[in-house]
Amino acid sequence: MTANESSKILIKIFYATQTKTAKYFAQQLHESFTKHSNCECTIMDIVDYETEDFLSELAICIFIISTYNVEGPLDWFYKWLEDTRYDFRVDKQSLSKMRFAVFGLGDSAYGDQFCIQPRNIDKWLGQLGANRLYPLGESDKNSDQEKSFEAWKISLDDVLFDPSYGLNNVSTNPNYDSYSESDDELDSDSNNNNDSDTEMVDVEDMGALAPKLQAARKSKEEEVYKNHNGQPKRILTVQELPVKEPKEMVTPMLRKSLTKQGYKVVGSHSGVKICRWTKSALRGRGSCYKFCFYGIQSHRCLETTPSLACSNKCVFCWRHHTNPVGKEFVWKVDPPEMIFSECLNNHYKMIKQMKGIPGIRADRFQEAFNVRHCALSLVGEPILYPHINEFVKLLHEKHISSFLVCNAQHPSRLRALDKVTQLYVSVDASTKESLKKIDRPLFKDFWERFLECLDILSQKGQRTVYRLTLVKDYNTEEIANYVELVRRGKPDFIEVKGVTYCGYGGASKLTMANVPYHNEVISFVEQLNQNLGETYEIATEHSHSCSILIANTKFKINNKWYTWIDYDKFFELIEKGEHFTSLDYIAPTPSWALFGSPEAGFNPEDQRFYRKSKKNNNSVKNGGC
User: Fold this and answer.
1) In a domain, 452, yes or no
2) Residue 473 exposed, middle or buried by CB count within 10 Å (0-12, 13-18, 19+)
3) DSSP character string of 161-221
4) What is the mean pLDDT of the chain?
């Protein structure tokens, strides 16, 4: 080895990520470090590194860690480090050769669980004798993550490469000087003195006692750590407390991500996007299942949300978990008039861009500039928006129908919601355990909130829908429990749809194996319908979407289904301001939409499109599905 090589600073950057955010920051750090000629830096996923090698690692280790409350790539290293820290047989200076720094990515909406994994990793490394080169850095998804990381990166860069800092003279464990192994030793000595007259423990009994002793010690250490590191140096008076202005929900990094996915971000917390069914309908190639079920024209539908934030992180979310999460609306609030106006403007701009697409039908292209329906289901939780009632009123004043979806986690907001054209509640599971597994809610009392929302739905006195998204191996069992939930909420309709696979690979572990076939959806619906009794029947289907609608038999009049909506009648009733029910604005369901029809939910006025393949060169066929 030459003198030049021996003077190089060896750095290894480890990242743990599911949505590639930590990897992105790790790459930024790598790019910054490699600008220094005396640096030799490598970057790797932490799952690709043998954990035992950390015990002899001589390179500087930088950890960029994302926080998750589900299984992920960090689990193996995290568990190994925890076991090493609390195993009484392991030398507490076992990582004394390591020099490290940790940066954590988290979400403040999770409260005391914010950055819990990066914090523990930073703490445990220090307690095992590793030398902390720079204090733990943290960034909040609901704030400017890039700004927080940039500040930490610059300071770390100075520590590593500025000679005035003296890399070899950096103090060990600066964050935890107030909490060290001496605390444990004092407790241990004290306990030993107090128990000197007690009976000695037999060596053969140690195996059974060890886990209990380890758990007790860990609990004690966590309490001491919290007390030492969670205390403010002084208490500020009310006059001294700074007045914080509410932050904008959409950070620069989030805006960039959403824009890349095709969203038009409106204001600071709203969004609009063109649905693929809008494009399909404009070309006469078929409409969304909502047209089949309720008569919503896809090319005249605005898909939007006044709140990009959600209170769940569902495994099947096809927004790739890029939207923020929160238990309540804590951000800057935009006025409903601005949101409504800008959503329409952005929607029409995107429609204009489709003018040159081959196959666009002129009549539907013109109709698209007169929106008649609004699907408040784009992403997030629309009822979180403080002025949701005012926003819905603006829609109705322009004779735009409102289809609002909620996740049954905000009972007070649901109770205060005014009448909409159709109110949806997502019922993604039938038990507390399965709901937690599939929806991954933020609230600890999520099940109680969920049930309360179903009770409220039964009392709303308007057109209501349960939306079930079937995910194989997650929520396709326990039919009897679904029946109980239906009896509780008494919805007018039950939509059952197979999950759509969108190339998950980030925070979700879903694969094509979790996507049910249409015949499997039918089988589930038939079992559910059989258990519901005579109150409900299977009404319509849209096989292309793997979707089926179960309807209350009150919508079957003289042996004919009336699941469609008379929209003009709805607006007439709204303007009168009198009480009305879901039966007061019904319209007959066309025969092609009925369950078991030859068309299977495909409008015969459209042309079914088939992609060209080696086996079939016919791209268009009339009718059918």
Assistant:
1) yes
2) exposed
3) H-GGG-GGGPPS-GGGTTS-HHHHHHHHHHHHHHTTTSPPPPGGGHHHHHHHHHHHHHHHH
4) 84
| Residue from 270, 271, 254, 266 nearest 323 by CA | 254
At 446 the three-state DSSP class reads helix
Q: CA 493, CA 499: separation in Å to the nearest integer?
A: 19
Q: Please check whether residue 181 lies inside any domain of the structure.
A: no
Q: Are residues 218 and 118 in the same domain?
A: no
pLDDT digits (tens, 9 = 90+) for 594-615: 999 999 999 999 988 776 654 4
Q: What is the pLDDT of residue 121?
A: 94
Cβ atoms < 10 Å from Cβ of 275? 18
How many CA atoms, within 13 angstroms, populate the side-chain half-sphere of residue 129? 14
Domains held by the chain: number = 3
Q: Structure pTM?
A: 0.70
Asked if residue 443 and residue 332 are part of one domain, the reply reads: yes
Q: Are residues 83 and 204 in the same domain?
A: no
- Give long-range contacts, CB 8 A cutoff, 24+ apart: 448-453: 449/408, 449/409, 449/410, 449/411, 450/408, 450/409, 451/488, 452/411, 453/406, 453/408, 453/409, 453/410, 453/411, 453/414, 453/425
- Percentage of the residues of the chain whose pLDDT score is greater than 90: 55
> CA-CA distances (angstroms) from residue 291 to 10, 286, 402, 565?
61, 9, 14, 10
Cα dist. 11→16, 105, 161, 607 in Å? 17, 21, 12, 60
> What are the backbone angles phi and psi of residue 530, rounded to the nearest 5°?
-60, -35
Domain extent at residue 22: 8-176
pLDDT in tens, 182-214: 444 434 444 444 443 434 444 444 445 455 545
State both tokens at 439: 């929806």
**Residue 549 contacts residue 565 (beta carbons within 8 Å):** no
- Structure tokens of 445? 């009392």
Query: Do residues 280 and 299 make contact, with C-beta atoms less than 8 angstroms apart?
Result: no
Q: Do 546 and 569 belong to one domain?
A: yes
Which of 176, 194, 211 terminates a domain? The answer is 176
Which whole number is the average pLDDT over 347-355?
A: 93
160 plus 196 within the same structural domain? no
In a domain, 153, yes or no: yes
Number of CB atoms found within 10 A of residue 164's CB? 5
CATH of the domain at 59: 3.40.50.360
At 288 the pLDDT is 93
Same domain, 343 and 439: yes
Q: In whole angstroms, how far apart are CA 290 and each of 43, 278, 542?
A: 47, 12, 9
Domain check: are 104 and 190 in the same one? Answer: no
Strand pairing partners for 551?
A: 493, 537
Phi first, then psi: give them for residue 481, nearest 5 degrees. Answer: -70, -35
Angle at 241 between CA 239 and CA 244, to 5 degrees: 125
Q: What is the rounded distance in angstroms from the CA atom of residue 176 to the CA atom of residue 173? A: 6
Split at pLDDT 50, 70, 90, the class of 506 is low
Q: Give yes or no: residues 277 and 132 share one domain.
A: no
Whole-number Cα distances in Å, 69 to 319, 440, 442, 593: 19, 8, 10, 42
Q: Which of 287, 258, 253 is nearest to 346 (CA)?
A: 258
